[in-house]
Amino acid sequence: MSKVFLPFSIGIGLAAGQLAKKVFAWLWGRVAGEDAPDPKHREISYPALLVALIVEGAIARLLRGLVDHGTRHGWRQLVGEWPGEERPEVN
Question: Based on the structure, what is the number of domains in the chain?
Answer without folding.
Answer: 1
